């Protein structure tokens, strides 16, 4: 037996409370600690004893027991042991005596119960088995309160009163709850709590009469019992009593905030409504790693980043990020991050913290409070380039603004930011030709308009010359003649072209200075003769070199390139006049790609590129710093089917940026069309020649490799082994012009045979390239020469090259795999048109296994709205044994009409009326066919909305918006002037896009638009383009 010690020191604090509170006190604040009762102890004891007895009976009801008098019914320990077993959901060990016969057995039962709750974390102070057996009511009440806190409110190292009050304050902000006694007497706060648990259940709580307290309490408590199964452990008269004790009020209200309670579920519903990509079921373990808190604050406009990990230290860092973001919203934490990481964290603390976010007005996402952009999308290297940042909200703190500029070689470019009260400016200086990606962040989020891209062009060339400054064909040349000191006489100026034609230049005089102008119309060296009174002045005639940037031609872009291979094309600059420098920038997905460029003859250059993914590449060519006519040129990489699949893949991962680094090939097994089997050949760079244009990053590029290939009788290409010299490292070395070049070594990973298919055509001539789809030549190779040609940031390699004369081309007819349900587009050997496409809204489709496929038809890919779609089932089963169901996004099944087109094929017809994903299920003889149910997407071309397309000006972008939000999945194509003018597209979000094109001629432009091959409403559009006038400064000569 444990005997209670009654000798206690009396302090000043204890004198202020009654002896009753002292006797029943425990460290957790149980049994009226701190309550200034000062009389009315009998009322307080009556209310609390009634409440606790009802609470005990709620639990004992499941085992068929009942307590009528707490002081006497617990004395033998049987009901106490049964209560502990119900609360702990397990049997006591050792088992207790069901029918005790004496006081010794009473004490033994009570000891078993007290030991069990003590081992379960309930701290027992000043209470023993003798106190229970002797019927000490005050201590029994203290024990029951300890059980209520542990098994109903929840175990926590924080005072339960603080956490409960915090949750009530959070969910009832209009009530201003401060206690668990007098605030609840009127019944109004309880009515408001019911309305929180289920909005609309007690919406008129604000209109209740506070003087009718007992009626209000009874109505609310009965509604809570009937609607939420909250037991009335507290009588309505007691709840309305001014002598209501705090522990009784906390006991009743705990039914609204314990786990799976009405308040718990209401707070949980709100949290889940804010989380887009996850669903939580508790306020404990789901919050340990910090991801839920970070997502919650982010949804309210205070972004917080979190890292997925199994490390509790990372979880704590995540939680601190979320807590700091919460402070920005005005919510202070109740628990520390270290506490919330604990797997045993009490749900009430986290739930109360989460509830405080409910009434915070959503903060505008930082990404929407700042916009950034540039007035120009082009600049020149070594030139300060400016862009602007605009505040869209008064809450922007410029200290949270950061910027990242990535150059064409994936290098970071220094950028400086300046701010004023409403905006900011950024400035950086590009040093490399190519695309620069600019991304502005606010609080770590990418702001509106970002990332945007600025293309850095080369500097206008500083050409070494004698005489007048060189100029371009079509420029205005102005000659100034100063006649001071000369005798009077007529001034005549004559310009003579390289072909001997003479042009008279009109002369004007002003203040003794004579001005003559002419406009050269052919490239080469012009002669300017200035005569005074018929005599040639001293130093004349003067020379002016004229170049023609439009004289540059690109050869070899007609045939499409193969993904993940080396592709060559030729630049012919013989029509420029010869004096100048060529720079090439190849762009894919707004990123500049590595390549090599080398001179192979007089004004002839070879460009070699290692292609990446399928798609449309843009080739920008500059001559003396100016874009040549037709630039950017289009280079198609891959078949149309490969490009279509790549667009699908890009749409599925639209938040990821494509990189110019070379990934492992994903296209070697692409079998939509019958393409040659390509044996991958890797060729490491090993150039020892000094070059001022060396590539600054790691690149698997090498000089173009060439080996003679002979055509055999079988449809295959074989490497002529007589031209290969095997080394000890199992690498082959290519001998070109009888000279061994170690830099041209390559490894053959498999048999060096390239099988051809009926879908390709090979010219009957010796072929030098082993990669199909490239231009090849059969002429002798020539050693590369150093030249003023510049490829921005990449290697100028002296590899051998000859002028391409033969090409491996695609056949103009389609090759269709009849076992596939996918149509293959026609592949043209000469791609004369330029086309820009993007996916408006595409979901990844899971293609069924084609080998087992018994179903085909266009309807397995896309479904046009309000038009009949067909599905072919390849089976001889009777129609009665074929079951086809098409389920729309609204879960409604569409009517199906079945017919038979042949003895081996049945046809199903149906018409979709909703945009979105449809499930097509096919069963034959009650067996589902392989791949079913199929997922197809219905689209509506008529839902594409195109904004007003304004008239344009030469050299200035024409922009217009396109809204595809209601059109569904598919491919939207824009064609300007039949594809001869390149269009650009930027994603604005929510399936809205900004399209643009830059006209280069003052003539009417035709804009055509198709969605999944269907013309969109309003197409085509006529856009008037006006001339922008003459630009550029004219070279001057002073005599």
TrEMBL record:
Keyword Protein biosynthesis: no
Annotated Pfam families: CH (PF00307), Filamin (PF00630)
Gene Ontology terms: biological process: actin cytoskeleton organization
Filamin repeat placement: 361-456, 467-546, 556-637, 845-938, 949-1025
Keywords for this protein: Actin-binding, Repeat
GO molecular function: actin filament binding
Region (Disordered): 649-668, 681-748, 771-816
SUPFAM superfamilies per the UniProt record, alphabetical: Calponin-homology domain, CH-domain, E set domains
Entry-linked Gene3D superfamilies: Calponin-like domain, Immunoglobulins
Domain Calponin-homology (CH) residue range list: 46-152, 158-261
Comp. bias (Polar residues): 681-690, 794-811
Keyword Disulfide bond: no
Source organism superkingdom: Eukaryota
Low complexity composition bias: residue spans: 722-738
Family: Belongs to the filamin family.
Stated name of the protein: Calponin-homology (CH) domain-containing protein
